[in-house]
Amino acid sequence: MVAQLRRDHRKCLTNREGAPVHRIGLYPGTFDPPTNGHIDIFGRAMKLVDTLVIGVAINEAKKPLFSLEERVNMVKAECARFNGPGLAEIKVMPMHGLLMKFAEACGAQMILRGLRAVQDFEYEFQMTAMNEQLNPDIETVFLMADVRHQAVASRLVKEIASLGGDIAPFVSPDVKRALMEKYQK
């Protein structure tokens, strides 16, 4: 019944001229690795859009532990739990270049971002202002991290894993296994 309500609700969304609207949202990130915080945002973002594009960024400045292909595959595996009738379609794609150009190419009307703390807000606020100058038609929507995930950051998860700590509370079993393999080499 919930799935049917979601489908019916999506059919009711129209623009000013009465034409149906297909909402596409872009959630960009490096996801090195994807954490439970990212997964939480994936699930919540799906409630806001018909198609969620997860852009896995090439960001050599962050010196990713995992290759782009590995990160794309991990995100795809993590998103498999969200498939089903009445749920938003998820597309996981490698992303390079300017965020707003990628958003335009995807047809996104909104960029979705997760916020954990004040430091995130300051950075995201500046990025949003710049992005709005590049394309004022694409909105940025912030989702607050669930309280269980507010301290979780990929950088910290990697550090804990590299020092032999337990990362089970922060990532899925598959991501934990992939991290452990990287650090055992």
Question: Could you characterize the architecture of this molecule?
Answer:
The protein has 185 residues and is of the alpha/beta class. The chain has one domain (2-147): HUPs (Rossmann fold), CATH 3.40.50. The chain has helices at 2-12, 36-45, 68-79, 99-106, 118-134, 154-162, 173-184; strands at residues 24-29, 51-57, 89-95, 110-115, 139-144. A 5-stranded parallel beta sheet has the order 3-2-1-4-5, sandwiched between helices. The chain is globular.
Write the layout of secondary structure elements.
Layout: H1 2-12, E1 24-29, H2 36-45, E2 51-57, H3 68-79, E3 89-95, H4 99-106, E4 110-115, H5 118-134, E5 139-144, H6 154-162, H7 173-184
Parallel strand pairs: 1-2, 1-4, 2-3, 4-5
Give a brief rundown of this model:
It contains seven helices and five strands, in the order αβαβαβαβαβαα. With 185 residues, the chain is an alpha/beta fold.
Assembly of the depicted chains: single chain
Read across the widest sheet, the strand sequence of neighbours is 3-2-1-4-5
Query: In CATH, what is the class?
Result: Alpha Beta
What name does the CATH topology carry?
A: Rossmann fold
| Total strands | 5
Largest sheet: 5 strands, parallel
% residues in beta strands: 15-25%
Query: CATH superfamily membership, which one?
Result: HUPs
Rg estimate, integer Å:
17 Å
Number of helices: 7
The CATH architecture name reads 3-Layer(aba) Sandwich
Number of domains: 1
Shape: globular
Low-confidence stretches: 1-11
Main structural class: alpha/beta
Order of helix and strand elements from N to C terminus: HEHEHEHEHEHH
Mean pLDDT: 88
Distance between the termini: 49 Å
**Range of helix content:** 40-55%
